[in-house]
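Re: your question about Partner of bursicon

S., sorry for the slow reply, the queue was backed up all week. Below is exactly what I fed in.
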Amino acid sequence: MVSETAWWLRHLSLFILLFMGVPPVVRAGDDVACETLPSEIHIIKEEFDDLGRLQRTCSSEVSVNKCEGSCTSQVQPSVITPTGFLKECYCCHESFLRERIITLTHCYDPDGARLTQEGQASLNVKIREPADCKCFKCGDFSR
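Result:
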């Protein structure tokens, strides 16, 4: 059994660490190096008929935005939490997505022949991409 004096000393030292030795917690919106950056991806879309047979495959290189970077996270002593530590984890995520219609311009039939006739030579696809990125508390999907 821990003596009352030892218990108070332990909690007093945690209290001192908590309020004097630890920098303030970064809150959502305090972006450290979280950016919205342009990137290139290769998109392939296949179309099938009602019986499940491949009709055409279309592809293209597309410029899209992505979220990249880091956010300040920390672990600090806590007398309130069961583990004795308070974890504040922040991640770089999209804060807003926008829809875009992109056109895939390289279309091929099931035999690999390039399609050139109108209505078959290209395919419009709807995508959602980040319009803005920010630091959010990890696991917080309520935004």
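Strands lie at 35-48, 54-68, 74-77, 85-88, 90-104, 106-108, 123-137. The two ends are 46 Å apart (CA to CA).

Happy to talk it through on Thursday.
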